[in-house]
Structure formats: structure tokens, C-alpha cells
Design goal:
- It is a single chain.
- With 464 residues, the protein is α/β, with parallel strands linked by helices.
- It has three domains: 7-135, 3-Layer(aba) Sandwich (Rossmann fold), CATH 3.40.50; 145-315, P-loop containing nucleotide triphosphate hydrolases (Rossmann fold, 3-Layer(aba) Sandwich); 323-458, Helicase, Ruva Protein, domain 3.
- The protein is 49% helix and 13% strand.
- It has helices at 15-27, 38-48, 64-74, 89-97, 110-140, 151-163, 180-190, 208-216, 233-236, 252-264, 290-295, 301-307, 323-339, 348-356, 362-376, 389-392, 401-407, 412-426, 431-438, 442-451, 455-458; strands at 7-11, 31-35, 52-56, 80-85, 102-106, 170-173, 198-202, 217-218, 230-231, 241-245, 266-267, 276-277, 281-286, 310-313, 345-346, 381-382.
- The strands form five sheets. A five-stranded parallel sheet has the order 2-1-3-4-5, with helices on both faces. A five-stranded parallel sheet has the order 7-10-13-6-14. It has a two-stranded antiparallel sheet with strand order 8-9.
- Helix 2 (38-48) packs parallel to helix 3 (64-74).
- The protein binds adenosine-5'-diphosphate and magnesium ion (MG).
- Residues 180-181, 245 line the site of magnesium ion.
């Protein structure tokens, strides 16, 4: 923890008052910055990142309450102590309602001032410590709900951790079911906004006119059915994250308004004359090719570039086969626990098919296949017959092996591994024979099998 003296900003338009405060605080070892007006104080706060602010309530230009409100937006975690005149307890109450951590009445004794300041700073330090520990906890668990062992996915998670705390919008791209929702939640959880709201909206699930009123809200009488006003999701997400899911389905007509709201950080409900400031971090997700949509004039390029400053591309399951056994076990044990029974083991043959299948619906499809299998499973082992027909038929779907490899966009390395395995299987796991067919030596064969992290799932009796 830092040992630098705490920095305190004192604000008053009366010079003498500022000087008294400064003298007392300085002699107690604090670093004091004095400001002669609310405006000057706001500047100091932005420049110096102080630990505490003490302000008189009554000032000519910007009063203490107004300063408090500005500070709430600018530096929400900065503790504020208000100085009020003796006997004006009502204004002290007002100040506390606005979030002041304490108040002092004039005239005050020096040690009273120091006591109140000391307590406020101690509180702040405790709060920061809690925040730090929370962040550490979140980081040490990484993204706790995301099961993966794939280097590609681990890189994605690292990226999420890196961008979590920046203010810029983030675009998460990837096929349906790859975990975009999960990552958007993780992004929020790892950011300093984690205590604020996480507000999702699925643009594909709502008709065009509803998206607008949901997002921006409306005032009473804005349209025929608007019998009372309604807070929009932008405003509801204030201090937190707004998750625009399926952003590719955002109507073109609304995109300009969305962009303006993001850029100006101000939202105007339908039918309202005034805009209200909002402090929202936007995370968008899409499973469509937005760049292509931009090219075709279906998506505004300015909005695209705004959102895509940070893009996180989530790989499909077929590009991370090493995750399949992990995900299968994870979903099996979770579903079994929910059903109150022990998780069955997966027969190697069944696992072979699970790993071979292309999973066009990605993790979501895998999850439901596992649930289905668990329901059908009799006994302690999950067998081939428990799997959905499409998973088992994968190889007999009319495509030959190479066509299937092409359809699945298989990498050369994976194709090679699959071929090596298939040959090995065809000779009942006899490695000498398999090596002979492949015209490689046994050492190379071992290496090729080891090279695939998925090896374990295919392990046959190692009798040769
Ligand atoms: N890596 C993962 N580990 C555990 N569960 C996952 C993982 N990826 C996705 N899921 C689960 O799969 C389902 C689909 O994920 P989701 O985030 O909704 O995908 P998307 O938004 O990309 O369509 C959810 O139930 C989610 O919890
Ligand atoms: Mg989703």
C-alpha cells in the first residue's frame, strides 16, 4: 500500500476559511490543494485524483450541493465532507443524502476537523482494499464459468481480462453457442463496473419499434400507448454495462441514434425534450459478418468502427476439439448433480464420436446433447446409443471423409491426427501395424498421437 500522504482538496470562496483548513490539515501531514470555487475544485479533482474533498456548502457560484452532484459523475468514489453553518442541520441532511460521507458545522475545533477527516480517509482506504481484494479474487478465478483448455480460447480470455477495465466499447464475434454471452458477463464481472448493473438486450428478439423504446425509454404521452413514462435500458445500465446482443439485427434506422448516444454519453427518451447524461459501457455481440453487412450497406460503418475498436473473436468448438471432453464432463457432472445422481462415465467409443462431430451449434448444442444422453443413459456408462443420431451419423452422413473434413473446415494438422487415429483403430490399436501402413516409424506415430491433446479420449489398450 502507498505511504504517500493523503491528498485533500479544500474548497471555499472565502480565502480565510481555505487557509485555516489548509494550515490545520497540513500540520497534520496531509497534502492539501486549495480551490477558490466549485469549478476550480472540479479541475483539481480531474488533475490530481485526490483522496478526499472538503467543501463549504454556501459558495457564490457553484454551491456545495451542485458541486457534489458534478462530483458524483466525475469522481463517484471520492469522499466528500461538507462544511455547513451552525444551526443549518437541514442542509447537512441534504448533503448526506447526496452522498457526503460526513459534515462539519462552523465553527469547529481543529481536532474535530482532524477526527472527521481521519475517519473518512480510513473508510475510503477500507473500501479500496475491499475493491482490490475483490478484483484479485475475480482475477485469480479468471472467468469462473468458462471451461476451456484450448490455447485459442485462453487467448480470448486473456483479451477479455485486458480490455475489461477500459472504457471503450467491445464487440464479441463468433458463431451461435460459442460463449459470447458468457464472455460479455465475464467482461462486466472483471471490470470496475462489476457492482453496477449488467443490462442485456437481444436486438434479434424484438420488433424494430420496441427496440427503440426499450433502449431509450419514453415519456408519458410520447405515443398513443405511452400512458406513463418508462426508463430505457441505457438509463437502467447507468454505472454498468449495456449488452447489445445480436447487434447485426439492429435496425438501420436506429443505428445513428445508437451511435450518437454512445458518443455523447447522453440519452434522450422518446418524446422528451431534454437529454440525460449516462455513464454506460457498451458491449455488443454478433454471429453475423458485420464487416460484410457494412459493405452491403446494411450496417452503418461509423457505428461499426465505434463498436469494433476492440473485437474479440470467439472460435467455434470445431477449432478447439480439446475442449470437448472437458465440456462433456463439466455438463455431465453439473446435470447429474442437479438430478441428484452420480455422473456416468463416458465410454471411449462415445467420446470418439463426440469429438468427431462438428458441433455447428457449438457449446449450446453440446450441452443439450449431453443432457439428452444423460436422460437416456441406463447404467453407469454413457454409451454411443445415448448420443443424438446426428452425432453418431456424422461419418455416414453421405459425405466421404475428405468432404466432411472440408465441410468442417478442418486444419491439416487435425486431419492428419484423425487419419492416424482412424488407421490405428482399423488395426485394433496395433501401433506397429499402423506405423507400417502410414509408412512412418513408431516414434513418429507416438509423436503424432501425443501432439493431439485429445489423445486421451482415444487411448486404446496399449498392448503393442
Ligand atoms: N467455455 C464454456 N464453458 C462452459 N459453458 C459454456 C462455455 N461456452 C458456452 N457455454 C454455455 O453454452 C451456452 C451457450 O453459450 P452463450 O454464451 O449463450 O453463447 P452465444 O452467446 O455465443 O450464443 C450457455 O449455456 C453457456 O453457459
Ligand atoms: Mg448469445
Amino acid at each position: 500500500m502507498s505511504v504517500r500522504p493523503a491528498t485533500v482538496v479544500v474548497v471555499d470562496d472565502e480565502r480565510e476559511m481555505v487557509e485555516v483548513l489548509r494550515d490545520v490539515l497540513q500540520s497534520a501531514g496531509y497534502h492539501v490543494i486549495s480551490a477558490g470555487s466549485g469549478a476550480e475544485a472540479l479541475e483539481c479533482v480531474q488533475r490530481e485524483e485526490p483522496d478526499l474533498l472538503i467543501s463549504d456548502l454556501r459558495m457564490a457560484e457553484m454551491g456545495g450541493h451542485q458541486l457534489q452532484m458534478e462530483l458524483k459523475r466525475l469522481a463517484p468514489s471520492l469522499p466528500v465532507i461538507i462544511i455547513t453553518a451552525f444551526g443549518s442541520i437541514q442542509s447537512a441532511v441534504e448533503s448526506m443524502k447526496l452522498g457526503a460521507v460526513d459534515y462539519i458545522t462552523k465553527p469547529f475545533a481543529n481536532d474535530e476537523l482532524l477526527f472527521v477527516v481521519g475517519r473518512a480517509l480510513e473508510n475510503r482506504q477500507l473500501r479500496q482494499e475491499v475493491k482490490r481484494l475483490r478484483t484479485e479474487l475475480a482475477r485469480s478465478y479468471g472467468l469462473p464459468n468458462i471451461i476451456t483448455a484450448s490455447p485459442k480460447m485462453l487467448a480470448v480470455i486473456e483479451m477479455v481480462e485486458q480490455v475489461a477495465d477500459c472504457a471503450a466499447s467491445v464487440l464479441i464475434t463468433g458463431e451461435s453457442g460459442t460463449g459470447k454471452d458468457l464472455l460479455a458477463h465475464g467482461l462486466h464481472f472483471l471490470s470496475s463496473r462489476r457492482d453496477g448493473p449488467f443490462v442485456p438486450i437481444n436486438c434479434a428478439a424484438l420488433p424494430e419499434n420496441l427496440i427503440e423504446s426499450e433502449l431509450f425509454g419514453y415519456v408519458k404521452g410520447a405515443f398513443t400507448d405511452a400512458r406513463q413514462s418508462k426508463t430505457g435500458l441505457f438509463a437502467a445500465a447507468n454505472g454498468g454495462t449495456l449488452f447489445l446482443d445480436e447487434i447485426g439485427d439492429m435496425p438501420l434506422a436506429l443505428q445513428a441514434k445508437l451511435l450518437r448516444t454512445i458518443e455523447d454519453k447522453r440519452v434522450r427518451p422518446l418524446g422528451a425534450t431534454e437529454e440525460t447524461p449516462v455513464n454506460v459501457r457498451v458491449v455488443a455481440a454478433t454471429n453475423s459478418d458485420l464487416e460484410k453487412a457494412v459493405g452491403e450497406g446494411k450496417f452503418r460503418s461509423d457505428l461499426y468502427y465505434r463498436l469494433a475498436t476492440m473485437t474479440i473473436a470467439v472460435p467455434p468448438v470445431r477449432e478447439r476439439p480439446e475442449d470437448i471432453p472437458l465440456l462433456v464432463k463439466h455438463f455431465l457432472s453439473r446435470a447429474s448433480a442437479e438430478a441428484g445422481k452420480p455422473a456416468p462415465e463416458v465410454e471411449p467409443e462415445a467420446m470418439t464420436y463426440l469429438m468427431r462431430y462438428g458441433w455447428p451449434g457449438n457449446v449450446r448444442e453440446l450441452q443439450s446433447a449431453v443432457h439428452r444422453a444423460l436422460i437416456l443413459c441406463r447404467g453407469s456408462k454413457l454409451q454411443l446409443k445415448d448420443l443424438p443420431p446426428r452425432v453418431v451419423d456424422g461419418r455416414t452422413s453421405g459425405l466421404n471423409g475428405l468432404e466432411e473434413a472440408v465441410a468442417r473446415r478442418m486444419s491439416l494438422e487435425r486431419l492428419e491426427t484423425e487419419y492416424v487415429r482412424a488407421v490405428l483403430e482399423s488395426v485394433n490399436g496395433n501401433k506397429t501395424e499402423a506405423a507400417a501402413i502410414l509408412r512412418i516409424d513408431r516414434k513418429t506415430l507416438y509423436r503424432k498421437l501425443e501432439g493431439s491433446q485429445t489423445n486421451a479420449a482415444f487411448a486404446s489398450d496399449d498392448t503393442n
